[in-house]
Design goal:
This protein is α/β, with parallel strands linked by helices and 321 residues long. The protein contains 13 helices and 12 strands. The strands form 2 sheets. The chain has a 7-stranded parallel beta sheet, with helices on both faces. Helix 1 packs across helix 13 and helix 4 packs across helix 6. It is globular. It starts with a strand and ends with a helix. The chain binds nicotinamide-adenine-dinucleotide (NAD). Nicotinamide-adenine-dinucleotide binds next to helix 4 and helix 6. Belongs to the D-isomer specific 2-hydroxyacid dehydrogenase family.
Length: 321
């Protein structure tokens, strides 16, 4: 089976090549993202492998099918960049990697919390300049704080377990409560209650119509003054401009983001530079109580190996169906 791998970074190429070695898969790697502009590259392929930034809309799927592609193997968990209905209509099978490393993303969410609560990002820059003054760097303990987790699937559950270990009281909201988390002492409440009670709110639900801009002016108004918001899920869960307004008023005391709404438009567009030219984003970065990372929650040795192995398995599984 000939597979066109889109949005491919050197580390993807290494891990995928290792996993596909000795199998019937023949992989070709493309740095560009899959879109209507690049879909013509798949002329001689049976399958494509894509990442979160690839734009797999109905037109792209129709073109894939027309060129003989029957399978899309995503190297990510979320499906929000794929028109699943169009794939079904065109009889194109879509695979994803359901749980490549929930721990990697959960630990990154905790890393953002611990950077913000101890102001490590500011301390580091100060010490680099030889300045050991502690003025303005007062932190707070996590023990005894209330943490709200929105979405307690694989990543959210791993996050809750870690926060329980810190001695936090963990409030959860999910459409499907987890018995294991309840046994651990986590408390499922309504979303309203979670907003009202939490010192820290971490988002681990998928992006869909009901969660788009979940954090906005109205929902922020229900939260504690100075709340910490952490988003390692998908950028559009947070209304960026309204979050900035809340940073100005102090409603948001700390903001930690691994994902940003406009990131897909620039991600992998140009391998030499991944600069977001977005004025709202630039403004966000001027706040000392904001920490942003560039969608690296999943980016660990363990997760990348798992992603590559599952992607290859998915393609081989399709081959033998
Ligand atoms: P999952 O499917 O295991 O869990 C998602 C949970 O959200 C489920 O329990 C589901 O019931 C719940 N949910 C659905 N709609 C909800 C709603 N409206 N309100 C509250 N909960 C809702 O997914 P996961 O593996 O835990 O991943 C969660 C998200 O993390 C993914 O959708 C993806 O967007 C993101 N993610 C980010 C990175 C990264 O590198 N930053 C990596 C992987 C995944």
């Amino acid at each position: 089976m000939r597979v066109a791998v889109f949005s491919c970074k050197p580390y993807d190429k290494r891990t995928l090549s290792d996993c596909a070695h000795g199998t019937s898969l023949s992989l070709s790697f493309f740095e560009s993202r899959l879109s209507m502009e690049t879909v013509k590259l798949v002329q001689d392929f049976d399958a494509v492998s894509c990442f979160v930034n690839d734009d797999i809309n109905a037109d792209v799927i129709a073109s894939l099918k027309q060129q003989g592609v029957h399978v899309i193997a995503l190297r990510c968990t979320g499906f929000n960049n794929v028109d699943l209905q169009a794939a079904k209509d065109q009889d194109v099978q879509v695979f994803h990697v359901p749980d490549y490393s929930p721990t990697s993303v959960a630990e990154h969410a905790v890393a953002l919390i611990m950077t913000l609560n101890r102001k490590t990002h500011r301390a580091y820059h100060r010490v680099k300049e030889g300045n050991f003054a502690l003025e303005g760097l007062m932190g707070f303990n996590l023990e005894g704080k209330t943490v709200g987790c929105v979405g307690t699937g694989r990543i959210g559950a791993a996050f809750c377990r870690i926060m329980k270990g810190f001695g936090c009281h963990v409030y959860c909201y999910d459409l499907y409560p987890s018995e294991a988390l309840i046994e651990l002492g986590c408390e499922y409440v309504s979303l309203e209650d979670l907003y009202e009670k939490s010192d820290i709110i971490s988002l681990h639900c998928p992006l869909n119509q009901s969660t788009h801009h979940l954090i906005n002016q109205q929902t922020l108004a229900k939260m504690k003054d100075g709340v910490m918001i952490i988003n390692t899920s998908r950028g559009a869960l947070v209304h960026a401009q309204e979050a900035i307004d809340a940073l100005y008023t102090g409603k948001i005391g700390f903001l930690g983001l691994d994902v940003y709404e406009q990131e897909n438009e620039i991600f992998f567009e140009d391998m030499s530079s991944h600069i977001i030219q977005d004025s709202v984003f630039q403004l966000m970065l001027t706040f000392p109580n904001v920490v942003v990372t560039g969608h690296q929650g999943y980016f660990t040795h363990e997760a990348l190996s798992h992603i590559a192995a599952t992607t290859v398995d998915n393609l081989l599984h399709y081959r033998t169906k």
